[in-house]
Design a protein that fits this description.
Layout (H helix, E strand, L loop, with lengths): L13 E5 L24 E11 L7 H7 L7 E5 L2 H6 L14 H11 L4 E6 L8 H6 L1 H17 L12 E5 L1 E7 L12 E3 L7 E2 H10 L2 E8 L2 E9 L5 E6 L4 E6 L9 E5 L2 H14 L3 E5 L9 H10 L2
Parallel strand pairs: 1-2, 2-4, 5-14
Antiparallel strand pairs: 2-3, 6-7, 6-8, 6-13, 9-10, 11-12, 12-13
Helix pairs in contact: 7-8
Length: 314
């Protein structure tokens, strides 16, 4: 190591515990929570729970979308193996004084090993089916968060998530879709021809050019380190149109110029105003920070990186 000294820090040993193995594996082989080598781990991820509609409906998000139904707005989390997690009251094969269900054993072992974090894993491979529908509306996101909070209040042995370790994500690129039809009155949610309108990446540099060419939209101004909305404008022409959705805190753009190579394009992207909202949230809530994909997609003068640094580092 070139003579440099290695700094020994506490390392994490994080393991998944599969809740479906209670009747499949011997108790001592981690079929039961009591069979986990607790003195060898620092973090246990209990797998899996899933997101489900709170009204008990089972139709898929794709079925609802294809029928033109509105997305559901109430969701909850539930165990994929309710019996194994909470209901099985048969005695443990390791400690007969305990029920063998997982949550009863977590409650005891969390006291024996208070430094071991126990976290809930939600989703897992094929069990992410309702995630996109849940995140689509504010109500869906709010109900999911509330369901997670209710879980943590009920099961106090669960570690939850340290806010200081959370990072908000920001893209330095746009998601570009090509709509089947161009209807300025129905842009959001319009059927699309392709998932990606371009094989290339629409970066913040490209977006800066599109914003400068826009026929309608809004202008931003910088007041000290803060970005804010300055004025709306409408030149009455065709081309790029910029929209800020105040309720969603999101920016998007569409192009209605028939002769443009970008005709019928819909872009969802980060601008200085939407990024400002995220930076305010980070500072207001005390979460860890921000993570960016990716640094080379910023403007030539690194306007977005400087905006981030102004609020989080300087």
């Amino acid at each position: 190591m070139g003579g440099s000294k290695l700094i020994k820090e506490k390392k994490e040993i994080s393991v998944y515990f599969a809740n479906w193995n209670l009747d499949r594996l011997p108790a001592e082989q981690a079929g039961e929570v009591a069979g986990i080598p607790w003195d060898c781990v620092t973090n246990i991820k209990h797998a899996f729970w899933q997101v489900t509609p709170a009204d008990g409906s089972t139709e898929t998000s794709f079925e609802r979308r294809d029928r033109g139904d509105t997305p559901r707005t109430e969701f909850t989390i539930q165990s994929m193996w309710q019996k194994y997690d909470m209901e099985d009251l048969m005695p443990s094969a390791i400690d007969p004084s305990l029920p063998r269900n997982h949550f009863a054993q977590y409650a005891l072992f969390a006291k024996r090993y208070p430094d071991v974090e126990i976290m809930l894993s939600i989703g897992g491979w094929a069990r992410c089916g309702y995630f996109s529908e849940m995140t689509y509306t504010r109500g869906g996101r709010r109900s999911f968060i509330q369901s997670c909070m209710d879980f943590l209040k009920k099961h106090t042995w669960a570690s939850g998530i340290d806010a200081g370790k959370l990072c908000i994500g920001t893209p330095f690129y746009a998601l570009a879709f090509k709509m089947k039809e161009m209807n300025p009155m129905q842009v959001v949610g319009a059927p699309c021809e392709t998932y990606r309108a371009s094989s290339g990446i629409v970066t913040e540099r490209d977006l800066k050019e599109f914003e400068a060419q826009a026929s309608s939209g809004y202008r931003l101004e910088k007041d000290g380190p803060r970005w804010q909305k300055d004025m709306d404008f409408d030149d009455g022409g065709k081309g790029w149109h910029l929209v800020y959705d105040k309720e969603a805190g999101a920016a998007y753009a569409y192009n209605d110029e028939v002769d443009s190579k970008y005709y019928k394009w819909f872009l969802s992207y980060e601008d200085h105003l939407t990024l400002q909202k995220k930076l305010d949230y980070i500072n207001d809530t005390g979460v860890g920070g921000i993570i960016i994909w990716e640094v080379d997609q910023d403007t030539q003068d690194y306007a977005f990186m400087n905006q981030i640094a102004d609020h989080l580092l300087r």
